[in-house]
Amino acid sequence: MSFYKNVTSKPWEYSSPTIGTGPESAFELPSERIALTIFLVVVSVIFSLLAVTYYLRMDLGDWVPMADPSLLWVNTGALIVSSVFFQLARNTAQGDNFSRSRALFMTAGLFAILFVIGQFIVWEQLSANGSGISSSAASSFFFLLTGMHVAHIIGGLWVWSRTTFRFFNQTDLPSVKLSIELCTTYWHFLLVLWVFIFAALSNT
Amino acid sequence: MAYVPLADQDHELHDPHTFITKYVWSQDHKVIAIQYGGTAIFVGLVALFLSAMMRLQLGFPDTFTLIDPSSYYQAVTMHGMIMVVYLLTALFLGGFGNYLIPLMCGTRDMVFPFLNMLSFWVYLLSVIILLSSFFVTGGPTGAGWTLYPPQTITPGTPGHDTGILLMLISLGVFIIAFTMGGLNYVTTVLQARARGLTMMRLPLSVWGILVATILGLFAFPALLVSAIMMTFDLTLGTSFFMPAIMAAGEQLDYNGGSPILFQHLFWFFGHPEVYIVALPAFGLVSDVLSTHARKNIFGYRMMVWAIIAIGGLSFIVWAHHMYVSGMNPYFGFFFATTTLIIAVPTAMKVYNWVLTLWEGDIRLNTPMLFAIGFVFTFIHGGLTGLFLGNVVIDLPLSDTYFVVAHFHMVMGVSPVLVLFASLYHWYPKITGRMMDETLGKLHFWCTFLGTYAIYLPMHYLGFLGVPRRYYAMGSTDFIPESAQALNANITIAAIFVAVAQVLFFINVFWSLRNGKPSGNNPWGATTLEWQTPETPPKHGNWGPEMPVVHRWAYDYSVPGYHQDFIPQNVPGDFGVSEDHDHDTEMKSPQDAQ
């Protein structure tokens, strides 16, 4: 069914009932995927607004750039590895190789946890060096942007832990498969988001 | 078996049995809707009480020692925030959205019932956090509902430490609740409609709620971001919004932040918020008008596209709230232009409502009276908006009572009248009983005429230059003493309207037991929620058979059909029959009553 054809139809003209048995859907996708897509748009709006405020603040004249801690590169690596493992877990689950997929899925989450720990260490280092959150506008934004990103990773890890739990229960494997797919999408999104944030933070 | 979400399941659901799962931790959209609605109305009554406090001070200054400047500002702030966010947004989307979307779309429930339940409980938490600020040291914040920094968190403003912190946390929690609910509403409408129910066959209520929810999903992030950044300023000593500033003779520890940035973020949320409240009202009132005028809605497709156009435009008009803050003149020009453009689709909707009534078979029952009342108040509130949208007119009027009158007419009184129209209209479906018509009509006339007695004179006060936000006028040369007499009259009218709402609550509770049984479809309406096998609908809504939709939502008074309405789930093309003289044949269940 074409969405465009649908919204330009003349509803007051009688037409015979549509053929089929299922409910009317705008998209041939599981509802969970639709909801995730909408959620990712909402998250994009949040970070776009943060980016706008960041660049506006940078223009104000008294902006003093800060040096990015080199540990961020290591953390970025951990997040990339995490994303790769999620993709592998998804691919093996598609082939119904669930025991292998489970191992890959758990590894993926562990690398994401490493990323979060790494970010905490970065904040610790910055605070110790006198670049704490309130020391300058640049570091305030550094903490804000990285903090918001980590909050979203932690939210993802909560879903990841629930999926892992269901993996062990071995009940409803088709729904686990969907969860893996959605986690993978979410992690790829957060990786891309992180690349943008990292670029924005380095570009001061 | 492949995984099938609850909303799409064909078979009947098992009812929850225990009291707790049925009424407290319920995942049934109808129970959640009532929980949302009840909480919103309760917190709205708190806000109503606060407005009575403000009016008493304004009408009779120096009479009530209870109200000092601090408590006056706290009342202003909490009244505004509660009414806009915690009452109107929650009642339209959490209440009516939850109740009507699955029923109007012909599904058994929302797509994610658990998330839906969570949404309500998180909303309740946000309300509790908000109300708790009344009981902390320093009281709730008195910074105005717009929470403009730097005064929000500088010493001297009531509730500048704990009160504002609780407000910001509460808003954050509310946004989380809204996002959970919003994902549900949008996904349910997009993905789980009954067979045959195409997007263009949806009742306008669903369109209004859908587009308002999408606006909310895009607009609330701006409030979330500004709330988080301000919380950082408040608790962690950052300077996102706080400039270098002196307070009470001391240099505060802030440096270089931009208060204007906050205003931009706030109104990027704040203006769409107006339409988050207005669009569901537009939708609901369209259905009420069409049903009780026994006529199809005039220009259905135009109505849908107008809703979408208003939704889109509402994101590029926000700075018209900030003309007095100062901006590049070209920006002012841009925002004035977009503001005037948004009046075009809005006016189309108003014309279409009036044309729906034109030559209709109008039943002047309580829901219809409230709906027609809305058309009046909305036109009046909207016309003053056209003036205020222009920079040169806004500048002298912005800080006067003219603005108070404008926004109360357009987004206070108008949506509230729609709420009442909808409550009277859908009450029979929710409870299975009719509300009392005499009490209802009395309630309408007291409310409708009373609100005019409040807000019409306020426009005049605005012309006189009476400033808004003032606790007391003091001795002011340019304002004549008669302004004070007018203020006293407004206060009397306000107290009258507030007390008149008791009629509504008496009616709600009295009719719950003593109302006439309504049957499934007392108004003779076409939309699916009136075609359920039981009233009130049971868990799962539809019994064993899911509804199939054969027509749009507005087949009223179709010539050749034996009734003056054809429900959406009735098959067959009746539009071409020539044998019947429809004037004598058509029957309406409302006539039978």
Can you describe this structure?
The complex is a heterodimer of chains A (204) and B (593). Chain A is built from six helices and no strands. Chain A is mainly α and 204 residues long. Chain A is flat, with a radius of gyration of 22 Å. The longest helix of chain A is centred in the C-terminal third of the chain and has 33 residues, at 137-169. Chain A has a single domain (32-202), classed as Cytochrome c oxidase, subunit III, four-helix bundle (Four Helix Bundle (Hemerythrin (Met), subunit A)). Chain B is mainly alpha-helical. Chain B contains 16 helices and two strands. In chain B, β1 and β2 form a beta hairpin. In chain B, α5 runs antiparallel to α6 (204-235) and α10 runs parallel beside α13. At the A-B interface, α1, α2, α5 and α6 of A face α5, α6, α7 and α8 of B.
Which labels suit this protein?
heterodimer, A: 204 residues, mainly alpha, Four Helix Bundle (Hemerythrin (Met), subunit A), 6 helices, 0% strand, flat, B: 593 residues, Cytochrome C Oxidase, Chain A, two-stranded antiparallel sheet, 16 helices, disordered N terminus
Topology of this protein?
The complex is a heterodimer of chains A (204) and B (593).
Chain A: H1 3-7, H2 31-58, H3 71-94, H4 98-128, H5 137-169, H6 173-202
Helix pairs in contact in A: 2-5, 2-6, 3-4, 3-6, 4-5, 5-6
Chain B: H1 19-24, H2 29-59, H3 69-105, H4 113-132, H5 162-191, H6 204-235, E1 246-247, E2 250-251, H7 259-293, H8 300-313, H9 329-357, H10 366-388, H11 391-397, H12 401-431, H13 437-464, H14 482-514, H15 582-585, H16 589-592
Antiparallel strand pairs in B: 1-2
